[in-house]
Amino acid sequence: MVASYMLISLLGSVMTFMTAITLPLTLIAAHASFRLRNMKNKLENKMEGAGLKRSPMGIFLEALGQQEENLQKIQTFLEGKVKE
């Protein structure tokens, strides 16, 4: 912690902003641009939507009782509240 404090105080607030805000946003944009959206990925998404194949996250959400229908109901409810 002491080393981090010394580094931040030496570099100043501009570098703190650059590393704390801009770097994560840059990494997110780079990840999104390098992500492959090919036929295999689209086919897997369709299979998962049809219930033929389940992703690890889908299994986890099902174990928590968070099925997609419940999430859609919540989303519809929130969208209705935002419009009001």
Automatic annotation (TrEMBL):
Taxonomic source organism: Crenichthys baileyi (White River springfish)
Pfam family for this entry, one: PRA1
Record has Membrane as a keyword: yes
Record's GO cellular component terms: cytoskeleton; endoplasmic reticulum membrane; plasma membrane
Transmembrane spans: 6-30
Name of this protein: PRA1 family protein
GO terms, biological process: negative regulation of transport
Swiss-Prot/TrEMBL keywords: Acetylation, Cell membrane, Cytoplasm, Cytoskeleton, Endoplasmic reticulum, Membrane, Transmembrane, Transmembrane helix
Cell location: Cell membrane; Cytoplasm, Cytoskeleton; Endoplasmic reticulum membrane; Membrane
Main location class: membrane
Keyword Repeat in record: no
Membrane topology field: Multi-pass membrane protein
Protein family: Belongs to the PRA1 family.
InterPro entries reported in the protein's UniProt record: Prenylated_rab_accept_PRA1
